[in-house]
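It is worth pausing here to work through a concrete case rather than discussing structure prediction in the abstract. The textbook approach is simple: state the sequence, then state the predicted structure, then interpret. We follow exactly that order.
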Amino acid sequence: MSQVAYLPVGKREQTKVQNRQAILDAARAVFGELGYETATVRDIIRRTGLAAGTFYNYYRSKEEVFAALADDGARRFAPILKAIRAQSSGDFEVFVRRALQAYFDFIADEHQSWTARRPPNEPHVHIQGETPETTAVFNEVRDAMEQAIAGRGGHLSDPVFMAASCIAVAREVGDRMLERRPIDTKAAAEFATAMILNGLKGLPKAPA
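Step two, the predicted structure:
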């Protein structure tokens, strides 16, 4: 009879969670020390202490690991954004200011060990495509837009374009913020807030 040890389902799931977290933690450290472009899957595996086969049970490439890191950040930021929207009581300008400050604080903290040690001038990598985690963040911003439009009697049009534009501004300003030393989240938030709020004034009105 085969001597195969079967872990209880709960234990197996716990092991999967631990292995996945070990890979993500190792990837953060490796990307921080070597830079994303230079780092390899082998570097990540060495840092985890796991077997190569175990790594490939979860991810097929460093691109997939990086995408998982981005999703993990989006998953943790979404409830922060949701809470800010609830606390803003439908005041869109308050939401924008608080959301941008929270976002820049979040990414500065999230990448303090990674970004601060990345090779100079290495381009910041963005993940293409949508995932449930990134969609949740987009939906919170879009819902805030729709709430603001309703509160202003339908003054501004197209909340989807508006949300996409706000996120694009935040992302691009955030990238440049992380390249500077010292990292100034307040200055980034003030600049992005002014860009977004002043830009909204020039948007077309929604059709009657």
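Step three, interpretation. Residues 9-34 form the longest helix (26 residues). The two ends are 76 Å apart (CA to CA).
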